[in-house]
Design a protein that fits this description.
The protein has 199 residues and is of the alpha+beta class. The protein contains five helices and four strands. About 11% of the residues have low confidence.
Length: 199
């Protein structure tokens, strides 16, 4: 159960890093023939970032110059892969012991399910306990695999969305922002929105 809880927490916290993103402009500014500045949108940038992250997780974040996200990507994927490997090893141990038990052997010396130091040949480990432990580790293994694949896909989506947001137009020519001001007559605080659109 603790393995599942850890996987859920890793998935939740790793998904939060996609929310807190600072918008930066990654457009090219050029002067046209009459001297006006224009920005060029690069439509291939998001697809490149997604492709790089699909080939090697974290490479899309490096392409977007979000270096601080790379340890988060590898940490999340590493925990998922580590839990998958751990649950696979435990599943194989209990599966082999269950098969030996069905074949008539009673030498389960390397199992200590309850943490009470069970000795070889001790009948405290029932066939049902071995089968239940085997099924439990198999479920945990499958859950770890699903979460790891989800984190890998989230890495690709994050690189793509971040590349889109870096080219988002945040110039002063087009703004929509809230403002607060104090009325000079009655000194009341007023709240409003300001919309600026310049050609």
């Amino acid at each position: 159960m603790t393995g599942r809880l850890l996987l859920i927490w890793v998935f939740i916290f790793s998904s939060f890093y996609t929310i807190a993103q600072k918008k930066e402009r990654d457009t090219i500014i050029i002067n046209d023939s009459i001297g006006l500045k224009k920005s060029i949108y690069n439509p291939l940038s998001p697809s490149k970032a997604a492709f790089y992250s699909a080939v090697l997780p974290g490479l899309g974040q490096i392409y977007n110059k979000r270096y601080w996200k790379v340890p988060i990507v590898y940490g999340a994927l590493g925990v998922g892969i580590g839990l998958y490997i751990q649950n696979t090893n435990e599943y194989n141990r209990f599966r082999d012991a269950f098969r030996r038990r069905l074949a008539g052997f009673e030498d389960d010396e390397f199992f200590d399910i309850n943490g009470d130091g069970i000795q070889p040949g001790n009948p405290d480990i029932s066939d049902q306990a071995l089968q239940d432990a085997q099924e439990n580790f198999n479920e945990n293994r499958e859950l770890a695999l699903i979460v790891t694949i989800g984190l890998y896909v989230l890495n690709i989506v994050d690189a793509n969305v971040d590349a889109h947001l870096k080219q988002f137009n945040i110039s002063n020519d087009l703004t929509f922002q809230p403002f607060i001001y104090q009325n000079e007559i009655d000194y009341k605080i007023n709240i409003g929105y300001s919309l600026t659109f310049r050609f």
